């Protein structure tokens, strides 16, 4: 398996992408988190609340195949791109699995699936046998703009369906408009609006701001 050779955009281009996608506040929140003030407003959402159509890929879809990534392959990918995170590896060791779209031996995008109970910044989410939590969706720069994220997510839905899992949940950061936009294509419905405040990486405060009607 080869690594995707991303063309790294310039700093000016990156900032323009952030502003264009409505992610300025999301980026600001991430900056504040680096100094110990993490104000995290997020939705707990159910993906494919109603069955969705197959997303249209803006490329020859026959070039992409679904691939289960081993722990070693995930380590290779995240090390290669400088995003190593011990929490990602611990998740895989504790039962998560990773699925990606492969194009000519190269990973174009990937996402993780959690089947066990999940803890997010001090809030616990209990999962039933027919439920899964989807996290860490990533599309490499060279493959963006092809609608691959919704397509991969859809393929994962069908994979889970074969295992008797018919409810899929995820977290959508309130200020991450790009993530919310792609999930909207998959008939995602927000269930709760939560607020987490983490002070100096130790003190975690959690609040339920809103419960949406289903």
Care to describe what's here?
There is one protein chain. The protein is an alpha+beta fold. The protein is built from 6 helices and 10 strands. The protein has helices at residues 11-20, 24-34, 71-80, 86-93, 148-162, 177-184; strands spanning 37-47, 64-69, 97-103, 106-114, 118-120, 123-125, 131-139, 167-173, 189-199, 203-211. Helix 5 (148-162) links the parallel strand 7 (131-139) and strand 8. The chain is globular.
Summarize the topology:
Layout: H1 11-20, H2 24-34, E1 37-47, E2 64-69, H3 71-80, H4 86-93, E3 97-103, E4 106-114, E5 118-120, E6 123-125, E7 131-139, H5 148-162, E8 167-173, H6 177-184, E9 189-199, E10 203-211
Parallel strand pairs: 7-8
Antiparallel strand pairs: 1-8, 1-9, 2-3, 3-4, 4-7, 5-6, 9-10
The number of distinct β-strands equals 10
Going by helix content, strand content and strand pairing, the class is alpha+beta
Helical percent range?
25-40%
User: What low-confidence regions span 5 or more consecutive residues with pLDDT below 50?
Assistant: 1-5
- As laid out across the biggest beta sheet, the strand order is 2-3-4-7-8-1-9-10
Distance between the termini: 42 Å
Calculate the mean pLDDT score and round it.
83
- H-E order: HHEEHHEEEEEHEHEE
Q: Major sheet, described briefly?
A: 8 strands, mixed
Q: Shape, please?
A: globular
Which percent band covers the strand fraction? 35-45%
Number of helices: 6
Nearest-angstrom radius of gyration?
A: 17 Å
